[in-house]
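@channel sequence for tomorrow's demo:
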Amino acid sequence: MSDTQKKHYLQSRLILLKAGITKAKKEGDYKRVHHFQEAITHVMEEMNRLPVQP
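structure tokens (generated this afternoon):
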């Protein structure tokens, strides 16, 4: 997977994870909220490892 493809993949994951947090908060499932927050942190770390595009 190229860096550009990986970046798009990670951005898509972020959108889905944020939607998951919103849904879990509405349902009052804070264990799932915490799980999603950890996943977002992991995705952000992966994005930071990618080379900076001009």
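heads up for whoever presents: The radius of gyration is 13 Å.
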